[in-house]
Design a protein that fits this description.
It holds the Pfam family FecR. With 344 residues, the protein is an alpha+beta fold. It has 10 helices and 20 strands. The relative contact order is 0.09.
Length: 344
């Protein structure tokens, strides 16, 4: 396509262009055309920035792969990496999710097509806001309806709105929402891409879809959970009140509901990690989700050690490891993306 023809493109049209996608998704590969074109038409930079964000934000999981297929993919990758000379216990945190970084080249097309497929499920409603975070990064922002959201590390979010004011969010990862109340009682729905949706009207809540479970914690107000594939003996809809939590198993569709201290699950958005009987397994989940680090411990007895208290969250893995090491009174040694733990 001629360079001048791109001048009439919207951000969405840029994001659909395969050459543009390759330029955005592979910045390490020099692309003379796009670099020269942007220098020639600097007034297009705002549109290009929106298109870049859209390309990144639509890279959601594709459901053309079943949960079993994902596990088999991970096992194949894991065994291909070889084994350590000495056996060690790897604290399990979202095993299949890590497979994407090793198989990204093979699955890139699937991921992109899956993302666009999910966008089609919104009945072609316009995506008027999209954003994402990288590992070790959080973002707080206002949505177009004046609702406030804080996005945790390694997460993605799309926001759409109908002519009648119905608001829908697609979330992959974790986010804390403070939803703006509307006088006409328009719905605000959060979809997790795992057959579970959260419907709210003016409330504060946390949704975490990382790992093998979806965890929804309500801090204030009331919400209705819509479970897309109810199992025998389970309701398709479930109401939550303030201080209640639901854990939904992605694989078998089972779920549990109980009362909790909501602050323990929502304090991250204000920059604090609250630890209540906090174990190394909990620390592993935190380091994996926020920094992409894997905790490994040879002495499994250490897994039973628990601590309580709180600490500030510093979005630098070395500092967080140092803090956790002091709290647990253990030695944390990093080797690449692995953190080996032993007693001092």
């Amino acid at each position: 396509m001629a360079a001048s023809n791109y001048l009439s493109f919207t951000a969405r049209e840029f994001a659909l262009d395969e050459d543009f996608q390759q330029w955005v998704l592979h910045p390490e590969e020099k692309n003379v055309f796009w670099e020269k074109w942007l220098r020639q038409y600097p007034e297009m930079e705002p549109v290009i920035n929106d298109a870049r964000q859209l390309v990144h934000s639509i890279r959601f999981r594709s459901y053309s792969l079943s949960a079993t297929d994902k596990e088999q993919l991970w096992d194949a990758v894991w065994h291909g990496l070889g084994e350590e000379d000495e056996p060690a216990t790897v604290i399990p945190v979202s095993r299949w999710k890590d497979a994407w970084k090793y198989a990204a080249a093979v699955l890139l097309g699937i991921l992109l097509s899956g993302g666009w497929w999910w966008m089609q499920q919104t009945n072609n409603k316009p995506v008027i806001f999209s954003t994402y975070t990288r590992l070790g990064e959080t973002k707080s922002m206002w949505l177009p309806d004046s609702s406030e959201v804080t996005l945790n590390a390694n997460s993605r979010l799309l926001y759409t709105e109908t002519d009648h004011g119905k608001r829908e969010v697609w979330l992959d990862g974790e986010a804390f929402f403070h939803v703006k109340h509307k006088t006409a009682q328009q719905k605000f729905i959060v979809h997790t891409y795992d057959k579970l949706s959260v419907e709210v009207i003016g409330t504060q809540f946390n949704v975490n879809s990382t790992g093998k479970e979806i965890v929804v914690v309500l801090q204030q107000g009331s919400i209705l959970l819509d479970i897309g594939e109810p199992r025998k003996g389970k309701a398709a809809e479930l109401y939550l009140e303030s201080g209640e939590m639901v854990r939904y198993n992605k694989q078998d569709g089972d779920y549990t509901k109980k009362r909790v201290d909501a602050a323990r699950y929502t304090s991250w958005h204000s920059g604090r990690l609250i630890m209540d009987d906090f174990t190394l397994t909990d620390a592993a989940a935190f380091m994996q989700q926020v920094f992409g680090k894997t905790l490994i411990v040879r002495d499994t007895q250490l897994l039973h050690y628990k601590v309580s208290g709180s600490m500030p969250i510093i979005y630098q893995p070395d500092i967080m490891m140092m803090q956790l090491g002091k709290v647990f009174r253990m030695q944390f040694n990093q080797r690449g993306d692995e953190i080996w733990i032993q007693q001092k």
